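Not sure how to ask, but would you mind making up any protein sequence you like and the tokens describing how it folds?
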Amino acid sequence: MSSRRTFIQQALGGSAALAASTVLSPRGVLGANDRIRFGLIGAGDRGMQDFAAALKCPNVEAVAVADVYTGRLDHAKTIVPGIKTYQDYRHLLDDKSIDAVLIVTPQHLHAAQFTAALAAGKDVYQEKTMAFNPEHGRRMRRAFEKSDRIVQIGIQVTSAPGFAVIKEMITPEKMGDITALHTHHYRNRRNGGWLRPIPEDCDPAHVNWSGFEGEAKHYEFDPNRLINWRFFWDYDGSNVYENMVHQVGFWYKVMDFKIPDTVTMIAANILSPKMQMPDTMDICMMQGNVMFTWNSMFGNDFYGEGHDMLLGTHGTIARNESDQVRYQPQGRNRLRGVDTISAVPPVGGQESGYYEATDQHMQNFFDCMRSHKQPNCPFEIGYRSAIACQMAITSYHRKRTVTWNAKTEDIDNV
């Protein structure tokens, strides 16, 4: 197995070579009826959910899967017998017959894999949070701007039916002056419900450890870091990166919000001793004249996993985790209470439970590959939402309010 330093050098060298070849012979636009051949990078729980969604789409073919742990590759082969498998994603990218890749890996690996995939001429479905830190974001932006590839960021709520309903509701007549947006994400599950057992064969013989670490700080092999990577700052950004990004991306697209003026985060770890990061938090982002707040905890599920309220002088728009959207006017009409709320029926969701729009989001990605139209969650929304999340985590670590420096493309103290 190669050393971590060798891995990084090879990755950078391979990306540069791929970039040169792509400039010389870019892949053409797919036709409306062309069969799309795709590969999956990252075959963990979320990776296999995205994989399943892709397999449901018509006229697509799963060609290869890459993951650092052979146990996941073996599982993928039970779903698609005969599929090619690799412990090094670069070998998957070498396959010129692959049109697109789904990147569903820990967030610290996104930048290297995303830039290499674009350089190899692949369209990319990139899971959130798009970029791990500002430097990764800058690298990813440069790579995207140099390419002509389709990029869909995995904030699937932007493909849910409620999006169009809310977008139509936000008019001066219905909302007046909007000054606040309150969003929540609540679970009653210690450690976020993410604690997973270590498989017996998760050992150095079955894991490409340097491939997992990538550019992160080096540790001796630790299967807990691989399987429960969400518990470590080296690879994740807490529930801010896991779930706040969904609600931020949704409203950034609805409201066309830019990167926040300032962000303040206060948080604590109260019930999740397995995690390095907090499990209870409040975040405030100033978006011009709109105060955008996000509140999350793992000790109560009152609001569920996605509850939003957009507040204006003329009315309120509410959306819940089931993608049900409701409007309630201000003034005398509000005295009608529930009748007024019910006058705009729930749209696009089931009666209860989280509305999962991954199937629609994946289909939109493949449709846009054929049409070369902008997907529902384009790179720019992924970039802005990633920076907002990075600002929140930086505020938490620095214990102060932070701002965005557009000239240096980095986070400064206020």
Remarks:
- The radius of gyration is 21 Å.
- The CA atoms of residues 148 and 372 lie 9 Å apart.
- Residues 1-26 have pLDDT under 50 and may be disordered.
